[in-house]
Amino acid sequence: MINMREKSQKGSTVVIAVTLAMAAAILIISASRSLLFNSHQVVYFNSMNKVYRLAETGAIKAIGQLTVDPEFYITNPSLVTNVVEPGEGRYSVSIQPRNDIVGSGYWFVTTATVTAGGQQYITRLHTHLRISNAADYFWAVKERLALTSGINAAGGKVYSPQLEFLPQVGGQVTTVKKAEFVSSGNVIPTRLSARYNAADINILEPGDHRPVSLDAEIVFPQVLNSDLIRYQQLAKVGQTPQHVNCNFQGTSPTGIAAVFPPGYVGGQWTSPVADTYANHTNDNFDHVYYCPSSIGPLTIGNVRIYGQVLFVAEGDIRITGNIYSESNPEASFPGAGVSNVSSSTAHQAVLITKANVVLTRNFHPGDAATYLETVEAMIMAPHGSLSAEPYGEYNYDAFGNPTTVRWGTPDVHARLRLLISSSMIFARVESNPPNNLPTVFQAPGANPRTYQYMQSLKDKPPFYMPALAEIHWQYEETVGAGSMF
């Protein structure tokens, strides 16, 4: 019995061993299959995440380009067609202006492709957005804007929640690229007016040549404390040297001072006139002068601008005379040629402030029957106003302080004319006497105040300008994906 029991126990041991071996084999096979399955999953999910990120990268880069150049995708299609991101994949962005989802908006379709494990993963990112690019507008005001006849802004838009085109004077045609307002009742004349034609109010876009009604107000780039901190850094405030300056003035309407960027490659110009700023650097990235409120308002007038120069002020900007943009050939731009990084590509003054912009009363026409004050500059004061100081019985210094008894004719205003070539963003424009432009500039003639869009702002966008993109609707569409198994 003992032998039989031992034999039986030995037989059971063999059976258990075989069973365990088979179970182990099954577990090994299952584990290998599970590992193989998981590796396919990892490749699949990683590739899908990668292609989604690539589509978002392509859209963000296109938005960035569009904020500084509204036509970049037309003039440089290679920037949005089969763009290769090394180590990531490739993408293309289709950009179409659309007004049906959001007024004055765009429809982006970004198609991204990633190849992994011999398979392609493809997605489309659909984005409806609106971009508030300050330089894209000739004149934008948060409150009422009344436009005189004769405005020439074929390359720029106009915008105001309450937009008015004043009656035509002397057959002068008002031309704008596009006119935008908020809700159907806030434009004069109404959208159905016969005045919207090529001989009176000539609106180039859209195809019906009438103002565009927006459902909501446009949000424009602001000048916030964070923006001022950024401009301080760009002006090297606190460093040696720092580009802090609040006074840019020539001696008279005929004594014009030259103003160059605070930094550029190459020697100091001496012809036609020298720039007397003492802290110039040889760094093409230096385009910003900064004026802190502790020093005072920024005063600028009777100057000629060479290159792209930003004047940033914490307080008011007081325009005391002419601001001209030089028109020399491209080879004369400050910096060692436009092919160099951040060298100037145009002659532009850009005035930026959190406060107000004032045309002061110390621009004197001399003995001429009429005299023209010219302002060629982009002006961005999204929190402030545009106004003019009336002339009194005294001459004034740049800060509005009376100096000597005024000369000559009893009505200086009847001798003053105004030319503004610009792109302007304001919270409001003074419309009431005595500080509105029509009160101060009223020389005889068809139109003593002439306004035109500064086309170079679109053709050669200035550096370091804020812009704002509003994304209203976005979704991703999976077009092609490798198998998970």
Describe this structure in words.
The structure is a single chain. Helix content is 18%, strand content 35%. The protein contains 5 helices and 30 strands. The chain has 2 domains: 2-133 and 469-480, no CATH class; 222-465, no CATH class. The longest helix has 67 residues, at 2-68. The strands form 6 sheets. Strands 5, 7, 9, 11, 12, 13, 15, 16, 18, 19, 21, 22, 24 and 28 form a 14-stranded parallel beta sheet that branches. It has a 5-stranded antiparallel beta sheet with strand order 1-2-3-4-30, covered by helices on one side. The chain has 485 residues and is α/β, with parallel strands linked by helices.
Question: What would you say about this model in short?
Answer:
This protein has helices spanning 2-68, 72-75, 225-234, 437-440, 456-459, and strands at residues 83-85, 89-98, 105-116, 119-133, 137-141, 144-147, 152-159, 162-165, 174-182, 187-188, 201-203, 212-214, 247-249, 257-259, 288-291, 298-301, 303-305, 308-313, 317-319, 323-325, 348-353, 357-359, 371-376, 378-388, 394-396, 402-405, 416-422, 424-429, 449-453, 467-480. The protein contains 5 helices and 30 strands.
The tally of helices reads 5
Which bin fits the share of residues in helices?
10-25%
Calculate Rg over CA atoms.
Answer: 32 Å
How many structurally independent domains?
A: 2
Biggest β-sheet strands, sense, barrel: 14 strands, parallel
Overall pLDDT? 82
The secondary-structure class comes to alpha/beta
